[in-house]
Amino acid sequence: MGAIAFFFYYFFDELYYIKDIQQAFKNVCLDKMLSDGYFDMSVYIYGRIRKEDMCARLSARKSIYAVLYKEAYPKKDNASSAWTGHFGEQTGTSNNRINTELTYEDSVAIVNWVYRTMKNAEERTQFTLELFEHIKELYGIRNRIKSAQGVFYNSAKVDLHFFSSISSVSRFVASISDKGDTLFFRGHADPNYTLRPSIMRSKKLQKNESKLYNDLLIECPDDFEKCHTHLEKLVKMQHYGLPTRLLDITRNLLVALYFACESHQDSFGEIILISAKPQEIKYPQSDTVSILASLPAFSYDKQQEFRHLAEDPRMGNDAFNKGVARLIHEVRLEKPAFQSEINKEDLLTSYIVYALKNNNRIVKQDGAFILCGLSDDIGALESFRYKDKRKKTVVLVDKKKKILEELKAYSINRASLFPEIECVAEYLKGLYS
């Protein structure tokens, strides 16, 4: 029995042996706690997710879990039978189902439903505290788990801060901005999101990265006519919403603050502080950038072959470069003068890349990217997080509507950050209707 299955078997009663529920808790909080050292359970503890809203979102996506929200929440004693009535028997004694992929949205819906089987915030808080005790026991976490406003965190890894205004966040950032490294920012409207690019949020997407990339080039050739490099193509794909190995970041704190507040009004927002040393920042014309940006041209199996070669400590540099000859050839199609040699470490590492200011959205958002390498570690990008005295600095914001109103005074709104005519028109319609 796997660690996850054992955990739920050990702790939960009959309801919590169910495999989809195991997977949902893993997706929403367990992975996040183990990799990042914190997660926000306030929306579940205080029942902030409206049943009607969740039902509408699930129904719009035709999720099978919408049925959980089309009737009254069950009590804890009969929740298991209610679940079985909808989905049949699912036990947690085997691993063949636990690895089935649930979307993050479905996982949130399931976890919220479980919390709603409990009577009140006090019972849900106690449930969460016991949950953490067993996480600590199973995974050997020796440090104290603390909670603040429904956010639980490992006090040895995380230094947690809450803010409610632009001025308070700005003062805090100013106090750390003289530490030497370059600061970038990213806003998450839900602090339980992990720091990873969209293509890596789903195994199915990741395995089809090459198909996504090449199919879009085939279907829309005119849109990429002026793109001369793989990076330029990736940036354009990211612009139009295709999942890529790029992660958007910004040099403008207020832009990140907007994205932290624009949605999920029932949860905290998060400003991720990204601290980069000079060697971790690349320009678009960098050879290393060309190497990593060329990866989507290759199938998932080929990428994994490259990764295994790079991770093999017995593999000499000459043998490694022979093994990645196809990747070298792809880079040379873009850069004929490229020296036919790749450093193993570069293939596994992620880098911050300054963006060419060749479209209005990047200009308005003062955008940059993290271009991700082939590391298989789900927490690989955590190394970019700003740390003070070896503790990760986590910045959460509340009063999102108030902050959005404050941002308007700085001309930070959806129309200014998304200057395409359809986005501006939508913003203006909402403003005056």
Chain-wise SSE layout:
Elements: H1 3-11, H2 19-36, E1 38-40, H3 42-45, H4 51-60, H5 76-87, H6 104-115, H7 121-139, E2 145-148, E3 151-154, E4 158-163, H8 166-176, E5 182-188, H9 203-207, H10 209-219, H11 230-239, E6 246-250, H12 253-261, E7 269-276, E8 281-282, H13 287-293, H14 300-311, H15 317-323, H16 325-334, H17 344-348, E9 351-354, H18 360-365, E10 367-371, E11 387-388, E12 391-397, H19 400-408, H20 414-417, H21 421-432
Parallel strand pairs: 4-12, 8-9
Antiparallel strand pairs: 1-3, 2-3, 5-7, 6-10, 7-12, 9-10, 11-12
Helix pairs in contact: 2-6, 12-19
Report on the architecture of this protein.
There is one protein chain. With 433 residues, this protein is α+β, with helices and mostly antiparallel strands. The chain is built from 21 helices and twelve strands. Strands 4, 5, 7, 11 and 12 form a five-stranded mixed sheet that branches. Strands 6-10-9-8 form a four-stranded mixed sheet. Helix 2 packs across helix 6 and helix 12 packs across helix 19. The longest helix has 19 residues. The radius of gyration is 23 Å and the shape is globular. The N and C termini lie far apart (56 Å). The N terminus is likely disordered.
